[in-house]
Amino acid sequence: MNPPIRFLHELSRALAASSLYGEQHPARRKAVQTSYDALQLLLAEDEDPSFSFLGRDVVYGYDALRELKDWEWSERFAAMGVQRIEIVGDVSQEDFTIFIEDVHARLVASTTGGSANGGASNGSAPAGVPALATSRQMSIRFGAIGVQGAATGGGVAVPSLPDVPISLEEESEAIGYIHSQVAGEGIVPLVEAEAVVRSLSVALHTDGRLLIPLLRLKSFDQYTTTHSINVSILSMALAEALGHTPRDVRTLGVAGLLHDLGKVRVPPEILSKSGSLSPEERELLERHPTDGARIILNSDRKLTLPAAVAFEHHIMINGGGYPHRHFSRDCHHASTIVHVCDVYDALYTDRPYRAAWPSAKALHYIERRADREFDTAVATAFIALMRKNERHLEAASN
Ligand SMILES: [Fe+2]
Ligand SMILES: [Fe+2]
Q1: Residue 267 pLDDT class (50, 70, 90 cuts)
Q2: According to a count of CB atoms within 10 Å of the terminal CB, is the N or C end of the chain lower?
């Protein structure tokens, strides 16, 4: 059994033993010790392991653990508001014991209908419990990332469409950090970018089904952050709807997140201008796909797909758009996915030069341009996905 799977098995045993035996019982102490030992084995090969529990799937880092498909504890973790576990750095025995006690308290609350840490556990994060945090130590963090009882209004995120009880403040902060690193160092902090995508993927599968939690813009200076998150979420949802593998879906999530990275080189006054752009300003703006692709490849040469998407996301299926190329060729399929998601989110958002369009109007716009601007199959799948999502959100809000 490989170390991540062994650790999860021993963790579930320790939690089960904690339910069966009193605190000082040897069987309980032994089970906790065995799972701690399994964690040390895991940490020997992976310094910062993370697990996400998505319905019946367990995701370790970037990979779904096929052996744990339909593992009963995956749903149990999610039901107690533990959709994610992250280990950051060394874990002392005492920290680990506290972690087990905290998770066990959640387990008891979720199975008895009581409350742990003052909140009801009903499949999302218990109210009053911060997402992805423990109260006492930071070496093991757990929670329902970015999914909170209610949007607090303190961050950039507000609910979209019919109200969605979701806030992605941590992810928004992480995007701000990523952009500041790119602007300052010219390098994409890939670990943070991948972590954001993982947690957006969790948010996308709240309650074990696909619901698209789009953020609404609160102030224009947050546009790039909000837009990056939304395009990442939409691209993952569309890739999933088109039947791509979980790994490809997350690669699309990274590509969506980084597609406009080149905008860090565009003067902010051009990005926020309310009137039409002069030819010189337009030229500066239209450099962002090339700059973005260059920044991404300079950061990591393996990121060829996100770089291709950054370069191609404004190119239309009929060859129009920009950057201008001397020889027309088909764009990568991933670029056609991100393109449609990019246009939808831009139309659906307030901009300095026009108010947000209603979702139906934005979808109609895409429908009319299928086969000229957008790949027809991709646009059709996107429209169907968004209409279905709206029906689900409406049902959820009633
Ligand atoms: Fe763009
Ligand atoms: Fe964009």
Answers
A1: very high
A2: C
